[in-house]
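User: quick one, fold this
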Amino acid sequence: MNLKDCHNFSDFRKLAKKKLPSPIFHYIDGGADDESTLRRNTDSFNDCDLVPNILASVGKPDLSTTLFGRKIDMPIFLSPAAMQRLYHPDGDQASARAAEKFNTFYSMSSMGNNTIEEVSNISSGPKLFQLYVHKDRSISDDLIDRSRRSGFDAMCLTVDTLVAGNREKDHRTGFTTPPKLTLQSLMSFAMRPKWVFNYLTGKKFELSNVKKKTDKGTNIAKSVIEYINEQYDPAMGWKDAEYCAKKWNGPFALKGVMSVEDAKKAIDIGCTAIMISNHGGRQLDGSRSPFDQVKAISDAVGDKLEIILDGGVRRGTHVLKALAAGATACSFGKMFLFSLAAGGQQGVEHLLQNMHDEINRNMVLMGCKNLKELNSSKLIYRK
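Assistant:
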């Protein structure tokens, strides 16, 4: 199996599983507790149906939209994801270059393996930085200042990870960052010598954007869960979020909003956007899916905020349903990380081309000339 055989999420997942050691694969693949929310994130799209119009003389539909002040060529982009060099040696650089080629947003995690400056130097495409509020506020301030100086277009503050979710697959596999061999994982690493060679001979594994501020998770083996619980501030509140929005002073989103009440508060503190997200089902198991909440939130605040559905997207039709429900755009994580593992920059480009083709084809089938024509009349919820 190779990239040309990858037509959908399942295909990219299978190829990534062949290339990644088990602890690394399951770090992408897993969710919290019983993974009910992880499954619901995608299943929720099946609770409604698209309603097409015929003979609409669509021709070539316009898939572009404006997000965070940038015009992008399709309404989907790469979610922020930590430690991308675990999945491919080129890591964030591969993702950023692929996103730039398709003129859509690349998102950098605070826990990236490349620096803000490195990515800025290799990509002039739309860029979003994902911020976490650390207990040491100087870390957060430093990340905001560097993102501004490096020309990032927007910032999102992740607000649903005050403590780490109970990701039991990570407990079972002994996943740490940087990875370390255990008796349990040794066979899996031994069966993937190319990954091991790249890891051992490549650039030192580190959390590049925070290494000068803290050695936690950088110079010593530390699990992701331990890093989150030690470094992120569980007492973060609305005043902290407002401080970050004002310090950034540009397009700013809260990532992890799930309720109408919180969406309204986001407006009050100066946000221009929200990312409706449950962290890919990796935090609070049993919570609603992002798609479940899009319509209610859009009905309440859609004319005052850009709304991004983050999580569960597997198909172009999922994007169309999200936009018809009131979203401005969608972002996805698991699928693009599997494509990164499957083929680096080429893999992410292949995925983005697949998604572009699906969205384009289905817009024609829907009878929609542009994204604005995807409205509530195009969607019926099953009772």
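User: anything notable?
Assistant: The mean pLDDT is 90.
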